[in-house]
DNA sequence: CTCTCCCT
């Protein structure tokens, strides 16, 4: 059967492209056979002789399965020509030429040997899943290939036809080979919820419909979350349907997951699953899929530093993948619980756009890249999440000011733990609490949910390690990597200190019953009856960010003394001068802070000059706007006109810019001031003018004069305020004052015509014009006819071009 | 009213 796989007909082409080029994209649908056929065929290529190939798989099961299958193809055991490598479980030997590795392993291999000696090529399987680690692995591999290993072959395999982003980073001329997949046809029906029916009600209704068809075998129902699954499982069990029902999700113990996947002959099975059934596991015997069309995804919020689970509609690629689960072994049926016309986004967002990037920043810093965006990414890590990750690493003391790693940071990166836990582990040395830190890290990293207090959970495990084998294994592994052995008795004394090392940003100060302010400035709550609800200080370990206030699920009490011992900066008294709105003046205090939290305050008798200056400017910046007098407003308008024409030569004096640059133009004048009223009285006009050179000041007066002399002899203020909104300056004057002006007056050496507001003797607008010449000819006769009767004492000559201009009445003139 | 998935 292997000879009939769709990928077979492309193998020669794949070999020939990689003989002469070092990059290739292979697009193949599920069932094409790419995972197992392509790596084996590449082993015999000339460029791979005497070297290894790495095959990257996104999941441990997939890696083992692929290795086992390929070894069997060669009539060998795993660990001979084909082996695998993953955390805590490897089978490779001296003969091994193809290593199937999981994502974390690839990154460690690259970090340990950036030359990748002995490796001829890397195959990225299932790249369309766009996991954070696959993206990082490819970025590092590209860096290696571009800098020191142009012979290194990189083959990216994807089930997605949309390869534009990949081509952008791999090169627009890269070869793309496409292969058909192989699957049975699946009939699609759309069954949106009726009225207000819930997802599980709708799924139950459609399940009845599906089971009526005699050809229906086992049914896979995909719902967004565990709660929906439990609800539907109950409903099916209470219904008269003669089926065997199994829940399936990642938090279920492994035995129950496996039970859900085992085929049974006697009764039809209904498997109610999360998205885990979409890609991670295959279930034999299924030919009906009921897809609710939703997924729950963790979205990282850079401003809170928290990850929130969000339910949203699936993308089209996932929906098709789910549907395909009905046609793996025979023709099938898929019921979609949404309307056919429901729009869906095309593909899943790459994880890099929505995940916590602290590990990515740690890895790239270890790689020697201080600014992660300098690498070549299929999708660049987003700015906000990068800054947030950098801030966390700074707080964990893993990152040095320049962006490199500290000593602690380098040790942490080698530990293969998330940065918070790694920082805790390396920091445990100074607390002489490494064994406890290992036990704690293993607990927090584990998948099991901690019920009740951390202290109890730890005590339980330390007393009876054999009952918690996964935790025990990981504890031992961490202890080995820290060069300690686990003692028989572990003291829990350093527990809260260790947690502060991992979660310095989540130190929490009580601000009410069960309400806490976190060091990152956010508010979080603990149930009012929680035993810690009345503690003044906690460290919040598990938090879920909700729409309103974040909720704390796991916490541990701490003392300020502990905090100060761990973070010497926290204990430092910091001079803090601030503006008091109530007192209308600057006040000073010395405070001890931890992030946004204030530990202690004492008044400060004397304020330093710099602190006062800084505080005053800061207070000014907090205000919605500067106090702008008319002369400053005019100056801003004049400057706006000039800087629009010559942005290189004239500064931008818009309000936003002035607010942002107080330090440069206002600072010299605030020295010694303590009250805001004094600041408000400063001559801002002169302060601004003084920043210009003398020649520039002269030029300003000449190009945009503040007054223009009308034919009447009167000097009239030009209004430049409209220039701030990109309009021309305005000159308002009585019509009679303009007699004799042949055309519109101008500024900026004739470049800009002024808008004239010609007024009646009662200063009512008669005409607004930027073309005076045409007004005299076309508009004036009409105005004259109408106004002569109403204002007989004022001159209304027939020829305004030659008439004597005047600001007063006829009589005074005679 | 906690909990999608994955990995060093």
CATH topology of the domain at 2-179: Rossmann fold
At the first level of CATH, what is the class of the domain at 2-179? Alpha Beta
Averaged pLDDT: 89
Structural class: alpha/beta
Annotation, overall tally of beta strands: 31
Gross CATH architecture of the domain at 2-179: 3-Layer(aba) Sandwich
CATH superfamily of the domain at 2-179: P-loop containing nucleotide triphosphate hydrolases
Shape: globular
> Please, how many helices?
31
N-to-C span: 117 Å
- Tell me the radius of gyration: 37 Å
Low-confidence stretches: none
Q: What is the share of helical residues? A: 25-40%
Strand content: 15-25%
How is the biggest beta sheet arranged?
A: 8 strands, mixed
Please state how the strands of the largest beta sheet are arranged side by side. Answer: 4-3-5-2-6-7-1-8
Q: Summed up, what is this model?
A:
The protein has 31 helices and 31 strands.
General description of the model:
By secondary structure, the chain is α/β, with parallel strands linked by helices. Among the domains are: 2-179, Rossmann fold (3-Layer(aba) Sandwich), CATH 3.40.50; 186-348, Rossmann fold (3-Layer(aba) Sandwich), CATH 3.40.50; 630-702, no CATH class; 705-813, no CATH class. An 8-stranded mixed β-sheet has the order 4-3-5-2-6-7-1-8, sandwiched between helices. A 6-stranded parallel β-sheet has the order 9-16-13-10-12-11, sandwiched between helices. A hairpin with a 5-residue loop joins strand 30 (755-759) and strand 31 (765-769). The longest helix has 19 residues, at 772-790. It starts with 10 loop residues before the first helix and ends with a helix. It binds one DNA strand of 8 nucleotides through residues 58-60, 86-88, 102-108, 129, 131-133, 224-227, 249-251, 274-276, 279-280, 295-298, 309-311, 351, 359, 415-418, 449, 542, 544, 546, 551, 553.
